[in-house]
Amino acid sequence: MASSKIIRVIGSINKDLVYYVSHMPAAGETLTANKFEQNPGGKGANQAVAASRLSSNAPDIEVHMIGAVGGDGKDMIDGLKVQKVGTTEIRLLDQQSSGNAMIIVEETTGENRIVLSPGTNHSFTPAHFTRAENLGSPWPDLIVLQLEIPLDTVMQILKTAKAASVDVLLNPAPAVKLEDDAYQSITHLILNETEAAILTNRDLSEVEAEGFNWKAVADEFLAKGVKNVVITLGSKGAYFATSSTSGLVPAEKIPKEKVVDTTAAGDTFVGAAAVKLVRKGKGALLEQDDVLTCCRAAGKTVQKYGAIPSIPFGNEVDGM
User: Fold this and answer.
1) What's the start-to-end Cα distance of the chain, in Å?
2) What does DSSP say about strands 99-106 and 85-93: parallel, antiparallel, or unpaired?
3) Beta partners for 113?
4) Which helix (H) or strand (E) holds 95?
5) Candidates 261, 267, 289, 290; catalytic one
6) In the chain, which residues have pLDDT < 50?
7) pTM for this model (two decimals)
C-alpha cells in the first residue's frame, strides 16, 4: 500500500468571536449584534480543517498541524481532532492565552471585518524551525503557511523548507511586504486582491478597477521566484499563473441572497488547493481545472455561517 501524502499546516489557532450585524458600524457608533457565535478558527486551523474535510474521500491524504494554544484552548485541540487533523505537534502553553479574532459580519452582504489578538500564535520563534526535522513527522509533502504567526518565524520556515526541498504554499494574510529573496522559497502563492496590492505596492483602487491587468501582478511574483500564483478575486473568480500558462477562472455563480458569510472562503480555497497539489505529486502546479475546483469549494463556504462550520467536505464539491 502506498504511503500517505502529508499536508502540514504551520500557523494560527484562534477562538473566533463572531458578531452578525445589519451594517458595519461607523466611527463612534455602538451597534447591537443580531447574533453572536464563538467557534474555533484562525487561518491555520481553518486551512487545516479545509484540507482535511476536502480530502475526506481520499484516505491516502493526512493533514497535520503545528500550532500553539493557551490554557484556555484545550477545546480547540479537541475540535481539530474531531476534524481528523493531526494535533500531536500543537503546543499547549498553560500560562498563556490563546489567540482570538473578533469578526464582524454584515448580514446583508456576507462581507466581514476582522481584528486579531495573536496570543500564543506569537510564541513561535525562528529558533523553533532551524532544522529539517522541525518541519514535523511524518515528513510533509507540502507545507501550508499564513502570516498570523511572527513574520521572522515564517521566513525561517521558508528557508528550512527550501533547504529540505519541501514545497511550500504561502497565503500571505494578514498581508505585509516581503523581502524579495523570500519569494525564491515559495512554491505556491495564493492571495486575494487586497494582499496582492499590498505586496506589489499598488493602491487598492488600482487593482479594483474594471479590466485591471492581473497578468502584470502575477508576472512580478513569478519573476521573483514563485512557481505558481493564484490571486482570488471574490465573486469574479481567480487569476492563476505559472511560467507556461495563465488565465482568469470564473467563480461559482451564487445568487446574492445565498451569500451569508465570506469569512472562511479564502481558507477553504487554500485547503482545496493543498489537496489538489499533493494528489498531483511533487513539483505539481495548479492548473485551470484545479483552480475551478477551488472556486467551487469556496463557493460552498459562503453559503453557510461561521468559519469552520461552513467548510464543505470533498463529496460536496465537484472535482474534489
Assistant:
1) 22
2) unpaired
3) 104
4) none
5) 267
6) 1
7) 0.92
